[in-house]
Design goal:
The protein is mostly helical. It has 2 helices and no strands. About 10% of the residues are buried.
């Protein structure tokens, strides 16, 4: 019964992180801005860092099951 919230949180974090990484990669390949009004290098770095962090957090949640 206690693994239900861990599964939900792990799925949410992993899907969001993977989606953010996929979107950042697609925007970068098309040479489109990742975030408007910011430096392209900084927005790419921050989006990649947060996407990776969310994937790691999701995998950690799955490991707690």
């Amino acid at each position: 019964m206690e693994s239900g919230p861990a599964v939900f949180a792990g799925a949410a974090f992993t899907l969001f992180g993977a989606g953010l990484l996929w979107w950042t990669g697609a925007r970068t390949l098309h040479r489109a801005p990742v975030a408007y009004g910011t430096s392209p290098a900084i927005s790419f770095a921050l989006a990649t860092a947060f996407g990776s962090a969310f994937v790691v957090l999701g995998v950690w949640c799955f490991g707690r099951i």
